[in-house]
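Q: what sequence does this backbone want?
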């Protein structure tokens, strides 16, 4: 199976199946997709996604992004609006206290997102929908604009919950840089002149190793363990975690 799905009108659309877990299992194919903007999907691409089994689409973009570049609708999947921004701001303070200026722009933003109560609410909805996606041959796609930052954090949380090791998660995140060696695509199609300039800046900033690993550090620092973060911040207790592993790994 291909990791990168070059479908017409799709941006940074990728398969999450096939990654090994520390439990000795593998993430199932045809269950999880991560992506950037999907407002330009063609009929041919929609036909592919229908055959793939797509049923759930989770849109992390802001309301203004969703209005400017509305997701392509189809009768075989349901779209769930789940904006990560605007954050409440409490995560910024925690990230600032932890970092003391050690991390770059993206690292600080990412830490703020996973520590912020609104950010956590957005990813809690993602996990609730992941649990709903329990039928055989049904799949879920989550996305933002570039498929890098808000989506990258979503992928990190899912993969880590399913038992994928940090190094593999980081490699999956950095794959986005291959997709965006030419940033013209983002500039032309994704940056909202009237929208949130922080989002525009994030879209244009290449991902790096430090940014994504800083998320693991922030979670460990404030929650003691990733399991505790899942339970406390996202409402995923041991029972639900076992359920997720049953749905998404084999």
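A:
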């Amino acid at each position: 199976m291909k990791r990168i799905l070059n479908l017409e009108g799709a941006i940074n659309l990728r398969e999450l199946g096939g990654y090994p877990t520390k439990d000795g299992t593998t993430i199932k194919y045809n269950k999880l997709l991560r992506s950037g903007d999907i407002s330009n999907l063609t009929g041919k691409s929609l036909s592919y996604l229908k055959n793939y089994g797509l049923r759930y689409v989770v849109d992390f973009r802001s309301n203004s992004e969703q209005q400017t570049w509305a997701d392509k609708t189809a009768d075989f999947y349901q779209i769930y609006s789940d904006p990560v921004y605007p954050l409440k701001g409490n995560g910024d303070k925690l990230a600032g206290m932890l970092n003391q200026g050690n991390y770059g722009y993206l690292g600080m933003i990412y830490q703020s997102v996973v520590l912020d109560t609104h950010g956590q609410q957005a990813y809690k909805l993602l996990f609730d929908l992941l649990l709903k996606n329990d039928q055989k041959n049904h799949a879920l796609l989550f996305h933002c604009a570039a498929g890098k930052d808000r989506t990258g954090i979503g992928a990190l949380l899912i993969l880590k919950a399913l038992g994928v090791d940090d190094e593999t998660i980081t490699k999956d995140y950095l794959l986005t840089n291959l997709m965006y060696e030419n940033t013209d695509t983002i500039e032309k199609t994704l940056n909202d002149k009237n929208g949130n300039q922080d989002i525009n800046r994030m879209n244009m900033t290449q991902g790096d190793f430090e940014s994504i690993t800083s998320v693991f550090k922030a979670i460990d620092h404030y929650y003691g363990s990733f399991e505790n973060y899942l339970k406390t911040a996202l409402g995923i207790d041991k029972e639900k975690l076992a359920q997720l592993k049953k749905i998404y790994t084999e």
